[in-house]
Amino acid sequence: MATKGATKFRLSNLKAMLKKNPSERAELSLTSRNLRQIPHDVFTLDGVEILLVNSNQLERIPPNIAHMSQLQVLDASRNNITLVSENIAQCARLQELNLSYNRLSDLPRELSRLRKFCKLYLKGNEITSIPPVVPTLTPLTHLDLAANRLSILPTSFKNLKRLKVLDLSSNNFEQIPAPVVGMNSLERLDMGFNKIGQYLSKLDSIEEIDVSDCSLKVLNPKVGAMKGLRSLRLARNGLRVLPDEICSLENLQTLDVEQNKLEQLPVPCTCYGNYRVSTRLGRPRTD
After folding, report:
1. Residues 85-100: tens digit of each pLDDT
2. pTM for this predicted structure
3. Which SMART domains match (predicted)?
4. CATH superfamily of 12-124
5. Residues 6+ apart with CB under 8 A from 223
Protein backbone atom coordinates (compact mmCIF):
# COMPACT_ATOMS: atom_id res chain seq x y z
CA MET A 1 0.00 0.00 0.00
CA ALA A 2 1.31 3.43 -0.88
CA THR A 3 2.09 5.78 1.96
CA LYS A 4 0.39 9.11 2.39
CA GLY A 5 3.48 10.88 1.07
CA ALA A 6 3.69 8.65 -1.99
CA THR A 7 0.06 8.71 -3.23
CA LYS A 8 0.42 12.02 -5.08
CA PHE A 9 3.11 10.60 -7.37
CA ARG A 10 1.24 8.95 -10.20
CA LEU A 11 3.15 7.48 -13.10
CA SER A 12 2.20 10.35 -15.40
CA ASN A 13 3.47 12.88 -12.86
CA LEU A 14 6.74 11.01 -12.42
CA LYS A 15 7.31 10.91 -16.17
CA ALA A 16 6.81 14.66 -16.31
CA MET A 17 9.36 15.11 -13.52
CA LEU A 18 12.00 13.10 -15.34
CA LYS A 19 14.56 15.56 -16.71
CA LYS A 20 17.93 15.59 -18.36
CA ASN A 21 20.67 16.99 -16.15
CA PRO A 22 23.67 18.97 -17.54
CA SER A 23 25.52 15.73 -18.29
CA GLU A 24 22.53 14.55 -20.36
CA ARG A 25 21.57 11.81 -17.92
CA ALA A 26 17.92 11.22 -17.06
CA GLU A 27 17.38 12.48 -13.52
CA LEU A 28 14.41 12.09 -11.19
CA SER A 29 14.41 14.22 -8.06
CA LEU A 30 12.13 13.41 -5.13
CA THR A 31 14.19 15.36 -2.62
CA SER A 32 12.44 16.61 0.55
CA ARG A 33 9.02 15.14 -0.24
CA ASN A 34 8.35 13.69 3.22
CA LEU A 35 8.41 10.18 1.74
CA ARG A 36 8.41 7.14 3.98
CA GLN A 37 9.01 4.84 1.04
CA ILE A 38 9.97 5.24 -2.60
CA PRO A 39 6.76 5.38 -4.69
CA HIS A 40 6.16 2.06 -6.45
CA ASP A 41 5.76 3.67 -9.87
CA VAL A 42 9.33 4.96 -9.71
CA PHE A 43 10.50 1.41 -10.33
CA THR A 44 8.40 1.16 -13.51
CA LEU A 45 9.98 4.18 -15.17
CA ASP A 46 12.28 3.47 -18.08
CA GLY A 47 15.71 5.02 -18.32
CA VAL A 48 16.18 6.68 -14.92
CA GLU A 49 19.94 7.15 -14.53
CA ILE A 50 20.02 9.44 -11.50
CA LEU A 51 17.57 9.04 -8.61
CA LEU A 52 17.53 11.62 -5.82
CA VAL A 53 15.47 10.59 -2.78
CA ASN A 54 17.56 12.41 -0.19
CA SER A 55 16.11 14.32 2.77
CA ASN A 56 13.02 12.18 3.27
CA GLN A 57 11.97 9.65 5.91
CA LEU A 58 12.90 6.44 4.12
CA GLU A 59 13.75 3.44 6.28
CA ARG A 60 15.12 1.12 3.60
CA ILE A 61 16.21 0.71 0.00
CA PRO A 62 13.63 -1.87 -1.14
CA PRO A 63 14.06 -4.99 -3.31
CA ASN A 64 12.25 -3.25 -6.19
CA ILE A 65 15.40 -1.20 -6.77
CA ALA A 66 16.48 -4.15 -8.94
CA HIS A 67 14.09 -2.97 -11.68
CA MET A 68 16.12 0.22 -12.24
CA SER A 69 18.54 -1.33 -14.70
CA GLN A 70 19.84 2.01 -16.02
CA LEU A 71 20.53 3.54 -12.60
CA GLN A 72 23.99 5.11 -12.28
CA VAL A 73 23.62 7.43 -9.27
CA LEU A 74 21.46 6.95 -6.17
CA ASP A 75 21.35 9.64 -3.51
CA ALA A 76 19.42 8.44 -0.46
CA SER A 77 21.26 10.57 2.08
CA ARG A 78 19.57 12.18 5.08
CA ASN A 79 16.91 9.58 5.71
CA ASN A 80 16.37 6.95 8.43
CA ILE A 81 17.63 4.00 6.42
CA THR A 82 18.70 0.91 8.37
CA LEU A 83 18.56 -1.63 5.54
CA VAL A 84 19.73 -1.75 1.92
CA SER A 85 18.28 -4.60 -0.10
CA GLU A 86 20.75 -7.07 -1.59
CA ASN A 87 18.89 -6.53 -4.87
CA ILE A 88 20.77 -3.29 -5.36
CA ALA A 89 23.48 -5.49 -6.85
CA GLN A 90 21.20 -5.96 -9.87
CA CYS A 91 21.67 -2.29 -10.76
CA ALA A 92 24.67 -3.26 -12.85
CA ARG A 93 25.40 0.30 -14.02
CA LEU A 94 25.47 1.84 -10.55
CA GLN A 95 28.51 4.07 -10.11
CA GLU A 96 27.70 6.27 -7.13
CA LEU A 97 25.78 5.57 -3.92
CA ASN A 98 25.21 8.21 -1.26
CA LEU A 99 23.85 6.84 2.02
CA SER A 100 25.23 9.56 4.28
CA TYR A 101 23.35 10.56 7.42
CA ASN A 102 21.26 7.46 7.87
CA ARG A 103 21.25 4.75 10.55
CA LEU A 104 23.28 2.09 8.81
CA SER A 105 25.75 -0.24 10.51
CA ASP A 106 26.22 -2.70 7.64
CA LEU A 107 25.84 -3.12 3.87
CA PRO A 108 24.85 -6.10 1.71
CA ARG A 109 27.74 -8.27 0.54
CA GLU A 110 26.17 -8.38 -2.91
CA LEU A 111 27.49 -4.86 -3.61
CA SER A 112 30.77 -6.50 -4.59
CA ARG A 113 29.14 -7.65 -7.84
CA LEU A 114 29.00 -4.07 -9.14
CA ARG A 115 31.92 -3.59 -11.53
CA LYS A 116 31.37 0.12 -12.22
CA PHE A 117 30.79 1.13 -8.60
CA CYS A 118 33.38 3.82 -7.80
CA LYS A 119 31.91 6.28 -5.24
CA LEU A 120 30.44 5.37 -1.84
CA TYR A 121 29.38 7.92 0.77
CA LEU A 122 28.58 6.69 4.28
CA LYS A 123 29.19 9.78 6.39
CA GLY A 124 27.21 10.15 9.61
CA ASN A 125 25.91 6.62 10.12
CA GLU A 126 26.27 4.15 13.01
CA ILE A 127 29.24 2.19 11.71
CA THR A 128 31.54 0.83 14.42
CA SER A 129 33.52 -1.54 12.19
CA ILE A 130 34.08 -1.61 8.45
CA PRO A 131 31.27 -3.59 6.76
CA PRO A 132 32.89 -6.76 5.36
CA VAL A 133 31.84 -5.88 1.83
CA VAL A 134 33.76 -2.59 1.72
CA PRO A 135 37.28 -4.03 1.19
CA THR A 136 35.88 -6.11 -1.68
CA LEU A 137 34.67 -3.05 -3.59
CA THR A 138 37.85 -2.86 -5.63
CA PRO A 139 36.59 -0.33 -8.24
CA LEU A 140 36.15 2.35 -5.53
CA THR A 141 37.95 5.65 -6.09
CA HIS A 142 36.04 7.73 -3.49
CA LEU A 143 35.03 6.56 -0.01
CA ASP A 144 33.55 8.71 2.75
CA LEU A 145 33.36 7.15 6.22
CA ALA A 146 33.44 10.38 8.21
CA ALA A 147 31.45 10.89 11.41
CA ASN A 148 31.02 7.25 12.35
CA ARG A 149 32.49 5.30 15.30
CA LEU A 150 35.53 3.71 13.70
CA SER A 151 38.83 3.16 15.50
CA ILE A 152 40.56 0.58 13.28
CA LEU A 153 40.59 -0.57 9.67
CA PRO A 154 40.98 -4.24 8.70
CA THR A 155 44.12 -5.34 6.88
CA SER A 156 41.93 -6.19 3.89
CA PHE A 157 41.23 -2.47 3.45
CA LYS A 158 44.47 -2.26 1.47
CA ASN A 159 42.70 -4.19 -1.31
CA LEU A 160 41.13 -0.89 -2.41
CA LYS A 161 44.01 -0.25 -4.78
CA ARG A 162 42.17 2.36 -6.88
CA LEU A 163 41.10 4.53 -3.97
CA LYS A 164 42.02 8.19 -4.51
CA VAL A 165 39.89 10.06 -1.96
CA LEU A 166 39.31 8.81 1.59
CA ASP A 167 37.53 10.65 4.40
CA LEU A 168 37.98 9.19 7.90
CA SER A 169 37.41 12.43 9.80
CA SER A 170 35.40 12.62 13.02
CA ASN A 171 35.97 9.03 14.12
CA ASN A 172 37.98 7.49 16.98
CA PHE A 173 41.34 6.81 15.32
CA GLU A 174 44.48 7.25 17.42
CA GLN A 175 46.83 6.96 14.45
CA ILE A 176 46.70 6.89 10.69
CA PRO A 177 45.62 3.28 10.04
CA ALA A 178 48.37 1.01 8.71
CA PRO A 179 46.39 -0.13 5.64
CA VAL A 180 46.07 3.52 4.58
CA VAL A 181 49.82 4.12 4.82
CA GLY A 182 50.39 1.45 2.18
CA MET A 183 47.80 2.73 -0.32
CA ASN A 184 49.85 4.01 -3.25
CA SER A 185 46.87 5.33 -5.21
CA LEU A 186 45.60 7.62 -2.45
CA GLU A 187 45.67 11.33 -3.34
CA ARG A 188 43.47 12.95 -0.69
CA LEU A 189 43.09 11.91 2.96
CA ASP A 190 41.00 13.61 5.64
CA MET A 191 41.78 12.48 9.19
CA GLY A 192 40.56 15.64 10.93
CA PHE A 193 38.82 15.47 14.32
CA ASN A 194 40.45 12.24 15.43
CA LYS A 195 42.90 11.73 18.32
CA ILE A 196 46.10 10.94 16.48
CA GLY A 197 48.35 12.81 18.91
CA GLN A 198 51.72 11.47 17.75
CA TYR A 199 53.04 12.12 14.25
CA LEU A 200 52.12 12.01 10.62
CA SER A 201 53.07 8.82 8.79
CA LYS A 202 54.77 8.94 5.40
CA LEU A 203 52.24 8.60 2.58
CA ASP A 204 54.01 8.30 -0.75
CA SER A 205 51.32 9.32 -3.24
CA ILE A 206 49.36 11.80 -1.16
CA GLU A 207 48.58 15.27 -2.54
CA GLU A 208 46.22 16.60 0.12
CA ILE A 209 46.02 15.67 3.79
CA ASP A 210 43.98 17.14 6.62
CA VAL A 211 44.88 16.33 10.22
CA SER A 212 43.28 19.39 11.78
CA ASP A 213 41.83 19.07 15.30
CA CYS A 214 43.73 15.85 16.04
CA SER A 215 45.66 16.77 19.23
CA LEU A 216 48.81 16.39 17.13
CA LYS A 217 51.90 17.26 19.18
CA VAL A 218 54.78 16.23 16.89
CA LEU A 219 55.07 16.20 13.11
CA ASN A 220 57.18 13.42 11.60
CA PRO A 221 60.21 14.81 9.67
CA LYS A 222 59.38 12.22 7.00
CA VAL A 223 56.67 14.62 5.86
CA GLY A 224 59.45 16.15 3.76
CA ALA A 225 59.53 12.99 1.64
CA MET A 226 55.93 13.47 0.47
CA LYS A 227 57.09 15.18 -2.69
CA GLY A 228 53.66 15.38 -4.30
CA LEU A 229 52.02 17.10 -1.33
CA ARG A 230 50.07 20.22 -2.35
CA SER A 231 47.92 20.84 0.73
CA LEU A 232 48.76 20.17 4.38
CA ARG A 233 46.22 21.19 7.01
CA LEU A 234 47.42 21.08 10.62
CA ALA A 235 45.09 23.63 12.21
CA ARG A 236 44.06 23.54 15.87
CA ASN A 237 46.59 21.02 17.14
CA GLY A 238 49.31 21.28 19.79
CA LEU A 239 52.33 21.76 17.55
CA ARG A 240 55.18 23.87 18.94
CA VAL A 241 57.61 23.45 16.04
CA LEU A 242 57.56 22.29 12.45
CA PRO A 243 60.43 20.14 11.13
CA ASP A 244 62.82 21.86 8.73
CA GLU A 245 62.12 19.05 6.26
CA ILE A 246 58.76 20.62 5.50
CA CYS A 247 60.64 23.21 3.45
CA SER A 248 61.56 20.59 0.87
CA LEU A 249 57.94 20.26 -0.25
CA GLU A 250 58.34 22.03 -3.56
CA ASN A 251 54.74 21.47 -4.68
CA LEU A 252 53.12 22.68 -1.46
CA GLN A 253 50.48 25.35 -2.07
CA THR A 254 48.54 25.38 1.20
CA LEU A 255 49.94 25.02 4.70
CA ASP A 256 47.37 25.71 7.42
CA VAL A 257 48.86 25.85 10.93
CA GLU A 258 46.29 28.13 12.50
CA GLN A 259 45.79 27.94 16.29
CA ASN A 260 48.76 25.82 17.30
CA LYS A 261 51.54 26.73 19.74
CA LEU A 262 53.95 27.81 17.02
CA GLU A 263 55.96 30.98 17.45
CA GLN A 264 57.57 30.90 14.02
CA LEU A 265 57.93 28.83 10.87
CA PRO A 266 61.15 27.03 9.90
CA VAL A 267 63.83 29.41 8.62
CA PRO A 268 65.24 29.42 6.02
CA CYS A 269 62.37 28.03 3.99
CA THR A 270 62.60 28.82 0.29
CA CYS A 271 59.21 27.39 -0.53
CA TYR A 272 57.58 30.32 1.28
CA GLY A 273 59.62 32.86 -0.62
CA ASN A 274 57.86 32.24 -3.93
CA TYR A 275 54.38 32.57 -2.39
CA ARG A 276 53.29 29.05 -3.21
CA VAL A 277 52.29 28.49 0.40
CA SER A 278 49.53 30.20 2.33
CA THR A 279 50.13 30.05 6.10
CA ARG A 280 48.02 31.26 8.98
CA LEU A 281 49.79 31.12 12.32
CA GLY A 282 46.89 32.56 14.30
CA ARG A 283 47.03 32.74 18.06
CA PRO A 284 48.95 30.04 19.93
CA ARG A 285 46.81 27.56 21.81
CA THR A 286 46.80 27.99 25.57
CA ASP A 287 45.64 24.52 26.55
Report:
1. 999 999 999 999 999 9
2. 0.90
3. LRR_BAC (SM00364), LRR_SD22 (SM00365), LRR_TYP (SM00369)
4. Ribonuclease Inhibitor (3.80.10.10)
5. 200, 202, 229, 232, 243, 245, 246, 249
According to the CATH classification, is domain 150-281 in 1.10.3720.10?
no
User: How sure is the predictor about 11, in pLDDT bands with cuts at 50, 70 and 90?
Assistant: low
